[in-house]
Amino acid sequence: MARDVLVLGGGGREHVLAWALTRSPSVAKVVTAPGNPGTAELGPTHAIDPTDPDAVAELAARLGVDLVVVGPEAPLVAGVVDALAARDIPAFGPVADAARIEGSKAFAKAIMEAAGAPTGGAVATGDRDAAYAALERFGPPYVVKADGLAAGKGVRICTELDEARDAVDDALVRGLFGAAGSQLVIEEFLDGPERSVFGVCDGTEVVLLEPAQDYKRALDGDAGLNTGGMGAYTPVPGFTLSEVDHLEDLVFRPVLQELADRGTPYRGLLYAGLVETTAGPKLLEFNARFGDPETQAILPRIGGDLGELLWQAATGSVAGAELSWQQRAAVTVVLASGGYPGSYPTGVPIHGVEAAAALPDVEVFHAGTRREDDRLVTAGGRVLAVTALGATVAAAREQAYEATDLIGFDGVHRRSDIAAGV
Ligand code: GLY
Known about the structure:
Blueprint: E1 3-9, H1 12-22, E2 27-34, H2 53-63, E3 67-70, H3 73-78, H4 80-86, E4 91-92, H5 96-103, H6 105-115, E5 122-125, H7 128-138, E6 142-146, E7 155-158, H8 161-172, E8 184-187, E9 194-202, E10 206-208, E11 213-214, E12 217-219, E13 223-226, E14 231-234, H9 247-261, E15 267-277, E16 280-287, H10 294-298, H11 306-315, E17 329-336, H12 353-357, E18 362-366, E19 369-372, E20 375-378, E21 382-390, H13 393-405
Parallel strand pairs: 1-2, 1-3, 3-4
Antiparallel strand pairs: 5-8, 6-7, 6-8, 9-10, 9-15, 11-14, 12-13, 14-17, 15-16, 17-21, 18-21, 19-20
Bound molecules: glycine.
């Protein structure tokens, strides 16, 4: 019997999750909370706070959904999956203790090291002198990370020692990140291209998804400030699914074993942020959820039943499970508000979404939008994620940019080099 699924969250990642689940034969209905104008076209939306465990569990019970798929990290860290488990409602996402793999960078490093997974050296400390000593030990470029979730602002990479010491003082002396910065992780800098590899995990076993390349900087040529991600493409030449299957044994299974041994088995999406160094892939970080906007590029390539795979991971085993993939490429270009990732206006009218979405092989995913009366307006930094499929990355790229050319709003900003030269 087909299942009803509640997707938690309201960004571009949640729109593409809801979209892919709607297309899954095992799924009857998709509802979102709080959702956005894009998910509202797929099914009902419910205006609750997704980080309130009791409100989420209450809603899921009232709707009688079969599965809850948690999009963002904040509800996971807040214990939403624990609250659902207390009511025997299956959820795709880790419990709060396991979500610490994203919620605490020191915890993540400890797990990587204990599991023997390849990563750079690091020192976790809340002591200023120890942090200063670690900076000297690793040398430039200096990497200073707040231990906890700091809204994407907790990582500083500095070329000068004085600047790095200032970053330490911002967190430990001036308390810029509050409790999230009361511990720091000082890391060895990992040099090389970053790759995103997602594993659907059942506590022991993993099914890897096609890797993607993310673009984190705001401006072309990887200039400007770090953002949540300005675009993505898949497949990544030289780093395709069949070329990274060794990561199951090198990274995913040992990490799952380590978490299980500590009494916190990990069910959900484990996102390995890797750097391809000259010494091979090394782990930069883990996230406890799908990446945004990589997911908007990856999921449209799925040929099989995503809903069934997430159900298996949440309730049983993914051993032997496989997803089929379309032999097509996907490119996603993010349209952001002017000023993002700094301050930006909201409520700006958006034009052209329907025309762009009407192009062949194009999907427009809503990230930061809302409806005001009958108008679609901006409501966030990343506003829309435009994905196109094509026979090659170059063909998908051309179509994605053609689609973004049809969309406009005052101050719109996009990178023009997503998937360029691939
Ligand atoms: N695109 C990076 C992330 O989702 O964290």
